[in-house]
Write the structure tokens for this entry.
Amino acid sequence: MDRFEKGNFTGKLEQLLDCMFADSRGRILKWFSPHAIDYVSDVVSTEMDAIKEDLRGALDIITPEFLLTWDLNSTMDNTIAPKAPVL
């Protein structure tokens, strides 16, 4: 995991952005909001496209035995998390 994933932002640019986001007038947040929404929407859309085939099941595999043994946590851990870390 690199330093950005851990949240260890220590560079001068990061410090400048921290100060700008801390401004009580909130102008940078107003400017940044639509860009952040677009970015997050793109990431989520890309991740959903990557996993939708894995989640799509055929009706013939849904049996009583399948329903008794299916586990959401293992599906998330084994199928979703590797391809969609933001989700």
User: Anything to note?
Assistant: The chain has one domain: 3-83. The mean pLDDT is 85. Residues 3-83 form one domain. Residues 27-55 form the longest helix (29 residues).
